[in-house]
Each structure stands twice: as structure tokens, then as C-alpha cells.
Write a structure and sequence with these properties.
Elements lengths: L3 E2 L7 E2 H5 L1 H8 L4 H10 L5 H8 L18 H24 L5 E10 L2 E5 L11 E4 L8 E9 L4 E5 L2
Parallel strand pairs: 5-7
Antiparallel strand pairs: 1-2, 3-4, 3-6, 4-5, 6-7
Length: 162
């Protein structure tokens, strides 16, 4: 599999280009100071403060912290979170189990002795689970075709094929 990906509005780009830190910053951190100046000029304003004044009513702006009475106690919040996570674990395990036996293309994030850590197209690093891959010759930053062999509530196990 080649290391190309489609970026909206652009032609095929090498995967390495997408992982370039400067490119990541440009795409995810926000507009540059020059971009902000151009955007403000386009709407006839001179500063972000002026934009806030024009768009956010003064009646709802405040520098003071909100005084919200009757906050939910921490132990109640934690109990609710634990219940939610237990239900979520069952749902996640069911969804991942449905992938067992399927062939997927994964992006290899890291190679360690005995296995590689990868992710599918729908997984975000450090947020979603991983695909633990054995076999083959995985290379970090490259795609690899795998067969899913097992699943738990968060992660998949796979073997490299092809």
C-alpha cells in the first residue's frame, strides 16, 4: 500500500507530509496572526475584541466565575461516570468483537519487540483503542494490511497478512 492520503481541496499527499509538525500546526492549532488580520478586514473590523463586542451581547459577558448553586457532589459524579463507563465498555466490546475475522488496513504508530501498535482509519491516537499487530514487517508511519484475530473492550489484536 502506498503512503498517500486524500486531503480535502488538495491532490494526493504523502503520509509523511501529513505528519509534518508545521503542517499539523497549520491544520489544527488555528489561524496565523496574518490570517486573523485578513479575516477581520474582510468583515470590516480591526481586532478580535471588536469582533467580540459586535457579536456577543454585553449582558451575557462576564469576567466573574459563574455561581452555580447546588453543584452535584463529587462522589455522585464519579458514581454516574462509573455507570456510564461500564455500559460503554459493553457497547465497545460488542462493536470491536464484530471486527474479528475482518481484514483491515491500519497505520502503524510504533514498532516494539514482538508486536506493533497501529490504528484503523477511524481511530484517533491517544483517544481510541489500538490494534496490536504481530507478524509481518511493520514500519512506523506506514500502512499495513492485517486480519483481526481478537478484541477486548478497548483494543484489537491482529496478524499482518500479505
Amino acid at each position: 500500500m502506498n503512503d498517500a492520503a486524500v486531503t480535502p481541496g488538495r491532490s494526493l499527499t504523502r503520509l509523511a507530509d501529513l505528519l509534518e509538525p508545521d503542517e499539523f500546526v497549520r491544520r489544527h492549532i488555528g489561524p496565523s496572526a496574518d490570517d486573523v488580520t485578513v479575516m477581520l478586514k474582510a468583515i470590516g473590523l480591526s481586532s478580535i475584541d471588536e469582533l467580540i463586542d459586535e457579536t456577543l451581547p454585553a449582558s451575557i459577558r462576564s469576567a466573574d466565575a459563574l455561581d452555580l448553586p447546588d453543584a452535584v457532589p463529587e462522589d455522585v459524579k464519579e458514581a454516574r461516570r462509573a455507570r456510564f463507563m461500564a455500559v460503554q465498555a459493553v457497547i465497545s466490546a460488542r462493536r470491536l468483537a464484530a471486527k474479528v475475522g475482518r481484514t483491515l488496513d491500519v497505520l502503524v504508530d510504533a514498532v516494539e519487540p514482538g508486536h506493533a501498535t497501529a490504528r484503523t482509519a477511524g481511530d484517533a491516537p491517544e483517544i481510541d483503542g489500538v490494534v496490536r499487530v504481530t507478524g509481518g514487517r511493520p514500519v512506523a508511519g506506514e500502512f499495513l494490511r492485517v486480519r483481526i484475530t481478537a478484541a477486548d473492550e478497548h483494543d484489537l489484536d491482529a496478524v499482518a497478512i500479505g
